[in-house]
Design goal:
Blueprint (H helix, E strand, L loop, with lengths): L1 H47 L7 E8 L7 E6 L5 E6 L3 E6 L5 E4 L8 E6 L7 E5 L3 E12 L6 E7 L7 E2 L9 E6 L3 E7 L5 E10 L6 E10 L8 E4 L5 E6 L2 E6 L7 E7 L6 E6 L5 E6 L3 E10 L2 E11 L4 E6 L5 E6 L3 E6 L4 E7 L5 E6 L5 E6 L2 E8 L7 H5 L14 E2 L10 E2 L2 H31 L3 H14 L4 H18 L1 H24 L2 H4 L11 H14 L1 H8 L4 H8 L9 H25 L3 H9 L4 H30 L2 H6 L17 H8 L8 H35 L3
Antiparallel strand pairs: 1-29, 2-3, 3-4, 4-5, 6-7, 7-8, 8-9, 8-10, 11-12, 12-13, 13-14, 15-16, 16-17, 17-18, 19-20, 20-21, 21-22, 23-24, 24-25, 25-26, 27-28, 28-29, 30-31
Helix pairs in contact: 1-16, 3-11, 3-13, 4-11, 5-11, 6-8, 6-9, 11-13, 12-13, 13-16, 15-16
């Protein structure tokens, strides 16, 4: 007895140690899972957070002008080592950060003086100077970089892109007191004239002599007598098709693509009770900024409304004091507004953010200009030239830009749009996440519509009605489907299934109706058979008899598809859907995704739901049957209620799988970020968007961080959804555990 008690005690101690080890391992494993989730959460948050920080200004240097002459233009060298100033005296002053300033003279004729100046928008460092002898001099600062003794040295100089000879615009030698110009690689347009005379439009364009390979500049002139006089400022659009005239407290938009017949397209009025103080074109030249003395800055751009392209004021920015100077970035939609008391504010139009403010001395901001990369700007305030560095890496992102409708340039109305890249450097990025979230939910819902009825109904039948022999074949077969790589499913869906659906669309739609009816009819006919047949050995495999019947039904529906298409859709199903029904049709669409992704989700839902139904205690089933309930009553009132937590978990697991699916959506849709519930159109999901665009995004760029934000949104969404689903599952379990 003592030996037996000792052995029992040792065995108990041994089990106790095993229990402790198992408990410790489970606790550590579960804790590590939670730690991993927290690390993912905080890392995504760490990458995303910098996007929502504002900009920062840092003063680089301040210098006194080298001469008292009036400023014609300010500019900044690309590396911010130099700032420069064109003066009324015909000199260009270069201000270096180390304090070594210098001045260079322009190649001007003796006795001539500068009476006007104008900058090009496409090449903002190009400056045209109007002289009092009727000539125009076009110059450009150039900064050569050399490395003497391995030290980077920047040397400024002046160049003349159209040659050192000046452009003799006025044959009578009238002073060029009003001037605006725009230039590109092939043409140059100038609008000029005296202060009291009509304006003239002069165009230069380059022609290549194929014999000598020399470029010859040709010229033509047009008198713009219809244009008003007394303008305060003029601007030309970079495409050299529109002229903006600021006069009499309004901005007139003239179409000059037919120079001999200029047309007044539109008049942009000042705000009620305010006066216009400055105008400027933004990057891309699709938008015009208009500043007012009440501190308001309006953004105007063209959009087609009611079949006509007109300028509309899309948004306003509020500055605290009267605006005196506007300067826009070269490639992004940012701009600086300076006021009469030395205040500067940095804004971004698309995100509608006020990014940074700085207060200089109380002197008026006369002029401002951005560095080419947007990482610095130079201003003239009072009797000082000041250069600032700008730390502004992510101005395009705001809550409104991500989640609200935004009125983008050229669009007829505010909309949700995702378009992160383009071939143009001055492209306006569109980072709305709504199309991606919508596409994710759309793909998941269509997949669930296809998968849930088949998987849940199949699981219930397999667990409750099917014979053990057939169940032993069916359940492993369905579970093996889960091992099929989704990239293969996506490949087959995109290249094989999508064309078949397009070619046999009537048959596919007919199949969705006929197949359930055939199954119901088969079940009815089976119960009408004599008992000696239905209860024979063959009856144990009755489900397998459906396979040839369903295959024949599918073949028959697809076989009659051409006939249905000819009779009902005039022989062109896609054209009928598009033209007659007004429903857009893409070959790779939500129907194809629903079928392919539903096929991938079915094994997950089926396996969990089948286990839940099969695991219902047998005494509940036998007790219900013993009390006289039918199999159907037992199923609906006992089995399904008891198994409901497991079935709900199965559906939620399938939905989570569908939300996070990447390859099927990537390959079986057009991957277009649309917000349409149309089953015949595609979509773009959060996961597919990350897979497509992450390889081409620059590290730490706004695009890169926005993609991490989409991952963060997907992570948070699935976490919240799964937590809510678990809460519902536990509630169902508590409610029906007493059965």
């Amino acid at each position: 007895m003592e030996i037996a008690e000792s052995n029992r005690f040792k065995s108990s101690q041994h089990r106790l140690w095993k229990d402790r080890i198992a408990r410790t391992g489970i606790v550590i494993g579960g804790s590590m899972v939670l730690v991993a989730l927290l690390l993912i959460f905080f890392y995504l948050l760490y990458v995303v957070t910098p996007m929502f920080k504002g900009a920062r200004f840092e003063p680089l240097f301040q210098a006194q002008p080298l001469s008292p002459a009036a400023t014609l233009k300010l500019g900044v060298e690309e590396s911010r080592q130099y700032g420069y100033r064109y003066t009324q005296m015909g000199t260009v002053e270069f201000y270096q950060r180390n304090g070594e300033h210098q001045s260079m003279g322009l190649d001007m004729p003796d006795g001539a003086s500068i009476v006007s100046a104008a900058s090009a928008h496409l090449s903002s460092d190009l400056l045209a100077l109007g002289l009092d002898n009727g000539e125009v001099l076009i110059s450009q600062p150039r900064f050569d970089v050399s490395y003497p003794n391995d030290v980077r040295t920047v040397t400024p100089k002046l160049v003349y892109p159209m040659g050192s000879s000046r452009l003799a615009l006025s044959p009578l030698g009238q002073p060029i007191e009003r001037l605006v110009f725009e230039a590109d690689a092939e043409s140059t347009t100038l609008v000029w004239g005296p202060s009291d005379g009509p304006l003239t439009l002069t165009q230069y364009w380059a022609e290549l002599d194929f014999l000598t390979d020399e470029v010859e500049w040709l010229r033509r002139d047009f008198t713009l007598s219809a244009l008003p006089r007394g303008q305060q400022e003029m601007l030309i659009s970079p495409d050299q098709r529109q002229l903006f005239l600021w006069a009499d407290n309004r901005v007139e938009v003239w179409q000059i693509d037919e120079p001999g017949h200029p047309q007044l397209r539109q008049v942009l009025e000042a705000q009620s009770g305010a006066r216009i103080t400055d105008i400027a074109l933004m990057a891309g030249a699709s938008s015009l900024l208009i500043g007012h003395d009440n501190g308001e800055v309006g953004q105007w751009f063209q959009s087609r409304i009611d079949g006509e392209r007109r300028y509309h004021q899309a948004r306003q920015f509020r500055h605290d004091r009267p605006v005196t100077a506007l300067a826009s970035e070269h490639y992004r939609r940012g701009f600086i507004a300076g006021d009469a008391e030395g205040g500067l504010s940095l804004y971004h139009t698309t995100s509608e953010r006020s990014l940074a403010q700085i207060q200089l001395s109380g002197a008026r901001i006369a002029q401002a200009a951005f560095a080419p990369a947007g990482n610095g700007f130079i201003v003239e305030s009072g009797a000082a030239i000041k250069l600032f560095a700008v730390d502004n890496p992510h101005p395009e992102v705001s809550w409104s830009a991500l989640w609200q409708q935004v009125w983008y340039e050229g669009y007829p109305e505010p909309d949700y749009i995702w378009q992160s890249t383009s071939g143009s450097d001055d492209f306006e990025p569109k980072f709305s996440l709504m199309p991606l979230v919508f596409g994710t939910l759309k793909a998941a819902l269509y997949a669930m519509v296809f998968a849930v009825p088949l998987a849940v109904a199949g699981a219930i039948y397999t667990a409750f009605f099917m014979s053990p022999k057939v169940r032993a074949m069916v359940k492993p077969t369905v579970e093996i489907m889960e091992a099929l790589p989704t990239v293969i499913l996506g490949f087959l869906a995109g290249l094989w299934l999508a064309p078949i659906v397009e070619q046999t669309l009537p048959g596919i739609l007919l199949l969705l109706i006929v197949l359930p009816l055939v199954m119901l009819l088969s079940a009815y006919l089976w119960h009408r058979l004599p008992e000696r047949w239905s209860h024979s050995r063959l009856g144990q495999y009755r489900e397998l008899l459906l396979i040839p019947l369903l295959l024949f039904t599918g073949w028959a529906c697809l076989a009659v598809s051409p006939w249905l298409e000819l009779v009902l859709m005039d022989g062109d199903a896609r054209g009928f859907v598009t033209n007659e029904l007004g429903i857009a049709y893409d070959q790779r669409n939500a129907l194809v995704v629903g079928m392919a992704m539903g096929f991938a989700v079915i094994p997950t839902i089926f396996s969990i739901a089948e286990d839940a139904v099969y695991s219902v205690p047998r005494h509940l089933v036998t007790g219900s049957l013993a009390l006289g309930a039918t199999q159907w009553q037992t199923l609906t009132r006992v089995v399904l209620l008891t198994a409901s937590p497991g079935i709900f978990s199965a559906v939620m697991m399938g939905f989570g799988r569908a939300v996070g699916e990447t390859m099927i959506v990537l390959m079986a849709t057009g991957n277009t970020p649309l917000m349409e519930w149309n089953i015949f159109e595609g979509m773009r999901t959060l996961a597919a968007n990350i897979a497509v665009e992450m390889p081409e995004s620059a590290i730490d760029s706004t695009h890169y961080r926005v993609l991490f934000l989409t991952a963060f949104v997907l992570f948070v969404f699935t976490f919240i959804f799964n937590t809510f689903a678990e809460y519902i599952r536990l509630g169902l379990r508590r409610r029906y555990s007493s059965l």
